[in-house]
């Protein structure tokens, strides 16, 4: 069951399509001031692309590049060919702005419709879009995709919880687009209003607007009695609909007919093997007005090895585990704090807080993880505590490939500043 | 210069088209539970329509009718044919909900594109949509129309004044959609940020989202150094784009190929002559999913007699002067408080406040208007004051066709409650 046959292409056919579209994208991009100059400097044109691997011959594009070209430097067409603009928020500094032609909006709406379909939304569904609209791509992105799929779309926007509940009940809303950090608050409000979430008409929640953990997803599913689906997108690549989970909930399918995804070591720029975490790099293949080539997203994830049970042939990325800027290098290994958080927060014994400490013994980097343990597990039985300590250390070693020291501490013993916990304490520079 | 040749049809051709579409609308409407029953009860079918005047043979539809049919009673098709829903806000009481098929959205976007074109917006313009999105039809209505016309559309949404200014400057925004009550505040903010509105790139403002006076328009034009255009729309008739000013700024052209507009006496239901104020009644001619026939808008306006200089042949309505529910009947004449407000507030001598008093002398209704006069005009020269009094009385008589008594009072002498002035004091019942 798929929306577009591009989702189930044989790998060889897909790569042929990618090569063709990449060449076309390079030709198009050469019409923009930025890429015209960059290609000249790097002696690039579309003829350098023979196989999909040749994408690696193209230079990266960074957020700083986009900023330096603000506002019009990446446009391949005259300004009056464009019909939409989205921009990162903020009034200080240079925003990044993305421009869309009508064809770009159509392509994006098609990708969004395909994405919604992948998680089980159908044209008979009634979708309430509970995210803000405006410059944020999540609102209009889901909105256009939902209409394109033919769903009855309720542009509820953010806020006004009571009205949201009334609309959901009055119109038998079956699908929600809801920000994950709002979803749990909303579940509480539904109960406060006297309704049991199990009795609500909803079935499917799209919660990909913010990075979140598997634990948060499970919590949302339990609290709202709903299936909740993650997705990935960023304004530079249109917005939502770059990669979407399917009903298997085992990673996000990259829509590879429209995007080339690479995962690289953020230090070296070289590809990492499937299964290893690195920085996601994206290239647009179907954007005509403002193609972007090898964009360094700074988002950290990994390709999930193997095939998805759903039958789609596209590569899947795992949930985002942080930003490349957060990366720690210990004993030559790249480690991301979110990897550690995901492991320990999934353990029932662990409380609200933890702290990663980096220090040096002699010339050797060491990592220690202080973990707050819930009171009922913080018992006097040393054997039990040592067992727990060892269990955490082993689980972490399996994930980060370095054995950390683990220190179990009591609830509320890790200091907080401004109510927010500091997650990493790097003592290596201090001691050096 | 027009966007669609429907705007300049000969009256006879237009009426032929209206008759054809009205018959089709009746046939469609008969598929909805509500109209099916209503037509049966009133013995109506499309064959009763021979000329456009026969629209008067159809029963009215009121807001209460819409409420009683909430949510699905007016739909002509199965729910899964619909892709959009807008609803009046509010969590108490029954909202009114309007459903759109994809074809309805396309028709609406075309009407909006035509509307923007009529006030001089072109595809080369850059339009910043500064109204809220969501269930309010103004946001998505203008957004879709602007994209349809081919303008670069910036979905800025409401609020965040500093960011609005930054976007306008960075992207050379030439057209704004701005709520009139926000526009004057915004002008002040622009100056506070150190910019002269005369130096801003904007040229055209769409300010039709709220009823406002000619005085407010002129103020906005002066303060923002912009041409500001009024328009008329309501959710029950899709949203914005029902009637729009042209660059002549002399009334709002009703898009009569899509809507039949009538103006009736709200008491008798009979048509009033052109030029006389009454309640606007609207019939959709191009809506397939949820046609509405002879909808009592409760909005008060008049047809402007004669032809517009722009060459468009459609009827024009004047700005909304209030709600039918506000109507006063004096000596058998219908009077609307906003008519009085418009006259006196346009006079330089008049201050912030006024009060309309209705009372009875013997069996005769009388109307007195107390008018606060600015200090510099409240002089000791009785002759000058009597002259002013007479001038106000004459101007009011010309507008409301009854000669009121006029009492000039000092600044701040009319009592306010909760900071808001009471505009009408009806003493007739008390004394009767
Ligand atoms: Zn799958
Ligand atoms: Zn005109």
Present the secondary structure layout.
Two copies of one chain form a homodimer.
Chain A: H1 11-29, H2 33-42, H3 63-68, E1 82-87, E2 97-101, H4 102-118, E3 126-129, H5 137-149, E4 152-154, H6 161-170, E5 175-177, H7 180-192, E6 204-206, H8 214-224, E7 227-229, E8 231-234, E9 239-245, E10 252-254, E11 259-264, E12 278-284, E13 295-301, E14 303-304, E15 316-317, E16 328-330, E17 333-335, H9 337-345, E18 350-361, E19 364-373, H10 382-400, E20 405-410, E21 416-417, E22 420-421, E23 424-426, H11 428-431
Parallel strand pairs in A: 3-4, 3-5, 5-6, 6-7, 18-23, 19-20
Antiparallel strand pairs in A: 1-2, 8-9, 9-10, 10-15, 11-12, 12-13, 14-15, 16-17, 18-19, 21-22
The structure holds zinc ion (2 copies).
Organism (chains A, B): Desulfovibrio gilichinskyi
Function (chains A, B): Catalyzes the activation of phenylacetic acid (PA) to phenylacetyl-CoA (PA-CoA).
Domain AMP-dependent synthetase/ligase (chains A, B): 80-282
Provide an overview of this structure:
Chains A, B: Keywords: Ligase, Nucleotide-binding, Phosphopantetheine, Phosphoprotein. Chains A, B: GO terms for molecular function: nucleotide binding; phenylacetate-CoA ligase activity. The structure is a homodimer of 432-residue chains. By secondary structure, chain A is α/β, with parallel strands linked by helices. The first copy, chain A, has eleven helices and 23 strands. Chain A has two domains: 1-326, Rossmann fold, CATH 3.40.50; 328-431, 2-Layer Sandwich (GMP Synthetase, Chain A, domain 3). Chain A has helices at 11-29, 33-42, 63-68, 102-118, 137-149, 161-170, 180-192, 214-224, 337-345, 382-400, 428-431, and strands at residues 82-87, 97-101, 126-129, 152-154, 175-177, 204-206, 227-229, 231-234, 239-245, 252-254, 259-264, 278-284, 295-301, 303-304, 316-317, 328-330, 333-335, 350-361, 364-373, 405-410, 416-417, 420-421, 424-426. The first copy, chain A, has a five-stranded parallel beta sheet, sandwiched between helices. In chain A, a hairpin with a 6-residue loop joins β9 (239-245) and β10 (252-254). Chain A is globular, with a radius of gyration of 23 Å. Chains A and B meet through β1, α5, β4 and α6 of A and β1, α5, β4 and α6 of B. Bound molecules: zinc ion (2 copies). One zinc ion (ZN) binds at residues 246, 248, 253, 308, 310, 312 of chain B.
């Amino acid at each position: 069951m798929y929306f577009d046959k591009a989702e189930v292409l044989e790998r060889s056919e897909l790569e042929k399509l990618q090569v063709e579209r990449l060449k076309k994208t390079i030709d198009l991009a050469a019409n923009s001031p930025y890429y015209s100059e960059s290609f000249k400097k790097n002696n690039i044109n579309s003829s350098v692309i023979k196989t999909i691997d040749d994408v690696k011959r193209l230079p990266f594009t960074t957020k700083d590049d986009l900023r330096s070209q603000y506002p019009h430097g990446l446009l391949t067409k005259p300004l009056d060919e464009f019909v939409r603009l989205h921009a990162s928020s903020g009034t200080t500094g240079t925003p990044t702005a993305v421009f869309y032609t009508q064809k770009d909006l159509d392509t994006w709406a098609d990708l969004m419709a395909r994405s919604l379909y992948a998680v089980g939304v159908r044209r008979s569904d009634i979708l309430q879009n509970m995210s803000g609209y405006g410059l944020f791509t999540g609102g209009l992105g889901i909105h256009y995709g939902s209409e394109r799929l033919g769903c009855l779309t309720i542009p509820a926007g953010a806020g006004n919880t009571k009205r949201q509940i009334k609309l959901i009940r009055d119109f038998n809303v079956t699908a929600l687009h809801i920000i994950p950090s709002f979803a749990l608050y909303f579940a509480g409000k539904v109960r406060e209003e006297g309704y049991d979430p199990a009795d609500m008409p909803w079935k499917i929640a799209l919660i990909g607007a913010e990075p979140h953990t598997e634990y948060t997803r499970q919590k949302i599913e339990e609290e709202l009695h709903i299936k909740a689906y993650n997705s990935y997108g960023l304004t530079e690549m249109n917005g939502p609909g770059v990669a979407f989970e399917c009903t298997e909930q085992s990673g996000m399918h990259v829509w590879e007919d429209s995007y080339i995804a690479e995962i690289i070591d953020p230090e070296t720029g070289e590809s990492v093997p499937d299964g290893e975490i690195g920085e996601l790099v994206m290239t647009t293949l179907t954007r005509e007005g403002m193609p972007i080539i090898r964009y360094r997203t700074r988002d950290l994830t990994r390709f999930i090895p193997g095939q998805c049970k759903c039958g789609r042939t596209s590569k899947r990325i795992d949930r985002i585990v942080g930003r490349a800027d957060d990366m720690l290098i210990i004993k030559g290994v790249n480690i991301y704090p979110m990897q550690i958080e995901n492991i320990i927060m999934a353990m029932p014994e662990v409380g609200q807080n933890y702290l990663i400490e980096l220090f040096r013994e002699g010339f050797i980097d060491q990592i220690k993880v202080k973990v707050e343990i819930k009171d009922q597990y913080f018992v006097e039985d040393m054997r039990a505590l040592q067992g727990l300590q060892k269990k955490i250390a082993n689980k972490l070693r399996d994930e980060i490939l370095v054995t950390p020291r683990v220190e179990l501490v009591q609830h509320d013993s890790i200091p907080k500043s401004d109510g927010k916990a500091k997650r990493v304490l790097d003592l290596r520079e201090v001691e050096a």
